[in-house]
Prior knowledge:
Keywords: Decarboxylase, Lyase, Phosphoprotein, Pyridoxal phosphate. Its EC number is 4.1.1.15. It comes from Streptomyces pathocidini. Residues 1-41 are annotated as: Disordered. Belongs to the group II decarboxylase family. This protein is α/β, with parallel strands linked by helices. Among the domains are: 21-59, no CATH class; 83-343, Type I PLP-dependent aspartate aminotransferase-like (Major domain) (Aspartate Aminotransferase, domain 2, 3-Layer(aba) Sandwich). 36% of the residues lie in helices and 14% in strands. The strands form 3 sheets. A 7-stranded mixed beta sheet has the order 1-7-6-5-4-2-3, with helices on both faces. A 4-stranded antiparallel beta sheet has the order 10-11-13-12. A hairpin with an 8-residue loop joins strand 10 (376-378) and strand 11. Helix 2 packs antiparallel against helix 9 and helix 10 packs across helix 11 (440-459). The two termini are 15 Å apart. The chain binds pyridoxal-5'-phosphate.
Amino acid sequence: MSLHKGPRTGGAEPDGLSMNPFFGPADPVGGMAEAPPRHRLPDTPMAPHAAFQIVHDELMLDGNSRLNLATFVTTWMEPQAGRLMALCRDKNMIDKDEYPRTAELERRCVAMLADLWNAPDPGQTVGCSTTGSSEACMLAGMALKRRWARRAATRKEGGRYPEGARPNLVMGANVQVCWDKFCNFWEVEARQVPMEGGRFHIDPQAAAELCDENTIGVVAVMGSTFDGSYEPVAEVCGALDALQERSGLDVPVHVDGASGAMVAPFLDEELVWDFRLPRVASINTSGHKYGLVYPGVGWALWRTIDDLPEDLVFRVNYLGGDMPTFALNFSRPGAQVAAQYYTFLRLGREGYRAVQRTARDVARSLAERINALGDFELLTRGDELPVFAFTTAQDVKNFDVFDVSRRLRERGWLVPAYTFPPNREDLSVLRVVCRNGFTADLADMFLGDLRELLPELRDQIAPLDRPAAVATAFHH
Ligand SMILES: *Cc1c(COP(=O)(O)O)cnc(C)c1O
């Protein structure tokens, strides 16, 4: 949390940081090694090695990112990628004129994604890099909203926004929190299709029924952060086609492919979810999830230039000409874009297929073996995103998913437990995200730890109270 209310007071933390005698004098000009303040800028500089060691030692207490089964974000890259990123960390993405080659790599990545996502005319596809899918979703949502405002204004022949009309966006209750943010920040009503029974994501028919003349679009997720399932994008488009036949309403679809847009093209080629569907106006992905790059990079692409209203685009100087840009940030590091291009070049389609196939194999096998333990029930099996969710079996009364999460944490594994949204608030689950670097060997060790914990969990009299810390470990 970066919105601090000031230093933590009254706790165990003293005001000063501790100084090891090895660090030498805090003040390079001389004097005693004095403890630098914790919450105030120190008055004087200190030697770089001492500052390094203090920061380094504090960070040792962070968890081991490789054992973090909660996050979708890349936690391992090759040393070559690390070197390229180090070489580019001083380059600002916005300075297209100073760094034309970095700008060119961004364009190539957009073109590669357009091709990967079957854009009808990859040369016509527009897109940009972002800091992640959240920014990409903000941009895509803004484009939808502006297009709606224009349509509505044309209908009403009035000002820019039709009087009294409030735009809305239709989605499943399982959307990632960035869509709640988008609706909040840009004053759009979020119309959510609730979960029902064993359906943990959007229902195409219910989504179409929520649409009206003020619907800016429908969001379909590939795949859901709650259980790793793909939403039925083609069926959503089909329901909206039928809606258009009935009512004339032409509602565009945005595909939030934060994870799945870098999985499905390699492992589920026959699945039609992308620009092959004419109703899909835009797609985003997180380069730092299954795009296999360290955080933070994301991508947003629009089918054609018509899907991205011209008045949202700003122009920056580029080799004497001007280059269109669409972003919330101005300055942004160029390193992640270079690393994304490196990874595309390095792996190619075959390489990506091999990496994602391995992640899915690990997920499927681990899900199967957890199922075989008998204490759990799978909601998903890791056969869409390499992600699965499971809960305790019906007859398990002595412990719950929060107990399991807490006990696994004692062994270093971070596995979030969380409660589902409407109308399945009765259901609490554990989720495991398998990604590159979570090897079959690590999965074996994880299963071994889970197996060893079970006798103690079964011996509990009842579930312990649900600790808040565990409930918030869920990474959407
Ligand atoms: C992770 C995720 C996001 C947010 O992406 P960031 O890259 O973390 O900003 C949005 N939607 C879905 C479906 C996600 O999985």
